Amino acid sequence: MDFRKMNLGHELMLEIERFARTKKFNTLMLDAQDHALTFYEKLGYQVEGEGFMDAGIPHHLMSKKLD
To answer: Which of 4, 12, 20, 43 is the most exposed place for a label (fewest CB within 10 A)?
Structure first.
């Protein structure tokens, strides 16, 4: 079965945020591959600082403040 275009990544990120709120976290951070920056920006994450390489793939640190 092809799981693409089923919004599973989006739903997973929303569940991570829900869980983080129950644990009283106020900020989430992640290392995003550059090709996925737009995906995370649509979820409210912001790029932090300069890019870096990880396993030969360009990345950026991203963060999101939780309500």
So the answer is: 4
* CA-CA-CA-CA torsion sign (36, 42, 48, 49): positive
Please give the model's pTM, rounded to 2 decimal places. Answer: 0.90
Cα separation, 24 vs 21, whole angstroms: 5
Distances (CA, A) of 32 to 2, 3, 54, 62, 63: 23, 21, 10, 7, 10
Average pLDDT over residues 57-65: 98
Percentage with pLDDT > 90 across the chain? 90
Q: Tell me the C-alpha distance between 5 and 22, whole Å.
A: 28
The token pair that represents 20 in the structure block: 């983080």
